[in-house]
Design goal:
By secondary structure, this protein is an alpha/beta fold. It has nine helices and ten strands. The strands form two sheets. The protein has a six-stranded mixed beta sheet with strand order 6-7-8-3-9-10, with helices on both faces. Strands 2-1-4-5 form a four-stranded antiparallel beta sheet, with helices on one face. The two termini are 33 Å apart.
Length: 234
Amino acid sequence: MMLRVEEIETFYGASQALFGMSLKIGSNEVVTLMGRNGMGKTTTVNSIMGIVRPSSGRVVFEADDITHAPAYRIARYGIGLVPEGRQVFPNLSVRENLIATAANRFNSRDPWTVESVLAMFPELEARMTSMANLLSGGEQQMLAIGRALMTNPKLLILDEATEGLAPLIRHEIWNCLERLKKAGQAILVIDKNIDDLKRIADRHYVVEKGQVVWTGTTAELDENADLIQEKLGV
């Protein structure tokens, strides 16, 4: 397994958000984290990334226990994050956002570059000198994904991959993720578009009240329509 999250419990002050959260992601695998709002998905991501610290349990990336590592060091282990709300650097240009995070720490023979990001998202080419805060929401999401790819991550995490985006932009993001999957990129993705998640993912975790209540393959998820309605329906 590339990533193992083992029985972590995470608090915000006195309020407990995760109750023994566990999940695994293998190399070249696409895994989803699904659940209603407020069920612990983003807290799980933040616990993996060192943004909040689990009070118990372990997070292991490859051979390294990263449970208590600072966020910058976790990123250097090879985990790239596309955070909820995009969080691009507003006062940097598109080009500056991309090169600010650029690294090839694992000596990839075909690393991500500004040119390859633009090949993935050609809409950004005309905006290279624009400040990031002047981009549309869809353009900011493309930039956030490109910025994460420029770190040449072993694992890419997307929190709310297409939230609030127009249908045409959502379609483009899903096509991007499908291309990354075909290239062997390991991905953990959170989103509400179940049909699109099923199209790209190998396995799924359904989260409720800070813990996993179901896990299985896409085929097994299709066989559990009642579960989807009960745990994910509005």
